[in-house]
Design goal:
With 98 residues, the protein is an alpha+beta fold. The protein contains two helices and seven strands; from the N terminus they run H-E-E-E-E-H-E-E-E. It has helices at residues 2-18, 65-70, and strands at 21-29, 41-44, 50-52, 58-64, 72-75, 82-84, 94-97.
Length: 98
C-alpha cells in the first residue's frame, strides 16, 4: 500500500513539473473613474479557458504554459477589449485598466 501512495505522489509531482501551470491574478478597473469592475470576462485567446472578475474587480486564472503563449483578452459590455500578450503575463498581481 505504501508503494502505491509513493508512486501516486511521484506521478503528481512529475506531472506538475512537466505540465507546470502559472496562476495569473489581477484587478480590472475603469480607466477614468478608477473603480473596480465586476463581472468582466477574462479569457485565453482562442480558448474556452476563462473566468470573470468578482465584485471587487479581482480575478485569478490558472494557465498552462501553452495558454500563456496565447495571451489573454479582457472584455466587458460597453468597453473596448484589451489584449494582453505573453510578456505581460506574470505571476505577480497586475493592475489592469480598460
Amino acid at each position: 500500500m505504501k508503494r502505491w501512495v509513493l508512486c501516486l505522489g511521484m506521478i503528481l509531482v512529475w506531472s506538475n513539473i512537466l505540465f507546470g501551470q502559472i496562476i495569473v491574478n489581477g484587478v480590472v478597473k475603469d480607466k477614468e473613474s478608477r473603480k473596480e469592475l465586476a463581472n468582466v470576462n477574462v479569457s485565453v485567446i482562442g480558448s474556452n479557458v476563462g473566468t470573470i472578475t468578482n465584485a471587487d474587480g479581482e480575478f485569478s486564472l490558472k494557465l498552462s504554459k501553452a495558454d500563456t503563449k496565447k495571451g489573454l483578452v479582457i472584455s466587458h459590455v460597453g468597453y473596448l477589449n484589451v489584449h494582453l500578450s505573453e510578456d505581460k503575463l506574470e505571476t505577480e498581481k497586475k493592475r489592469l485598466t480598460v
